[in-house]
Amino acid sequence: MLNEKLLNALNRQMNHEFFAAHAYMAMASYCDYHSYEGFANFYIQQAKEERFHGQKIYDYINDRGEQAVFSQVDAPKVEFNSILETFEDGLKQEQDVTHRFYDLSEIAHEHKDYATISFLNWFLDEQVEEESMFETHIDYLKRIGDDSNALYLYEKELAARKFEVEA
Question: Model pTM?
Answer without folding.
Answer: 0.94
